[in-house]
């Protein structure tokens, strides 16, 4: 496992699957839904991870931006928004309207000077597919003092309830808590952390924690990701977590 070049594996995965993925998710091209958080596209205007703190014109970087649907969403909301994406296949479909710019790069090696961003955003982007401590160190570097990092990833509870054989989430605990922080299923490398691991990493990398949101699926709402997660499960238990932390 340690010998896997996760960046190369994941770049190939997204270059090969970008078109299929976005054809399955036309909501990413609906500007009215963005910026938003998680697989239920909960509006930033409701969660207010950034909008209560950042004045118009603030500079935001989207870590693992995909086609840039949230990057452009922040741009339309009045921010100077940049997107960083590992995959050229993703960037070849980038929306781009209003965004300050897109860069192909690994989020753990950002081609920006230190202290130039007011906020960093990641919604199931780089933090799902790279070692989180490396990303936190790099986010800390490019943020100004007092800068905000908001990130959304899958919850530890979902990871414990994920059945590796069926590829679905059930109502029984199927995995040990905190088991396998790095997982490789033969096509893509993903990373998971427990709450305690996240807290330790935030502290070690120089961030203070301000909020932890555990969103449930809105009852009666739309389902955008039908591959593995049952909506009834996610209406009862949080499938995701959204962290808001600040550079100390």
Provide the fold topology.
Layout: H1 6-23, E1 36-37, E2 42-43, H2 44-47, E3 59-63, H3 69-76, E4 80-85, H4 88-91, E5 101-104, E6 117-123, H5 126-129, H6 132-142, E7 143-154, H7 156-161, E8 162-163, E9 168-169, E10 182-184, E11 189-191, H8 195-204, E12 207-213, H9 231-236, E13 240-247
Parallel strand pairs: 3-4, 3-6, 4-5, 6-7
Antiparallel strand pairs: 1-2, 7-13, 8-9, 10-11, 12-13
Helix/strand order: HEEHEHEHEEHHEHEEEEHEHE
Task: State the total count of DSSP E strands.
Answer: 13
Average pLDDT confidence is 92
Helical content (DSSP H or I, runs of 4+): 25-40%
Tell me the structural class: alpha/beta
The DSSP helix count reads: 9
Rounded radius of gyration (Å): 17 Å
C-alpha end-to-end distance: 34 Å
Describe the protein.
Residues 62-149 form the Methyltransferase type domain. This is Class I SAM-dependent methyltransferase. Keywords: Methyltransferase, Transferase. Pfam families: Methyltransf_11 (PF08241). The chain has 248 residues and is of the alpha/beta class. It contains nine helices and 13 strands. Strands 5-4-3-6-7-13-12 form a seven-stranded mixed β-sheet, with helices on both faces. A two-stranded antiparallel ribbon has the order 1-2. Strands 8-9 form a two-stranded antiparallel ribbon. Strand 8 and strand 9 (168-169) form a beta hairpin. The longest helix is centred in the first third of the chain and has 18 residues, at 6-23. The relative contact order is 0.16. The mean pLDDT is 92.
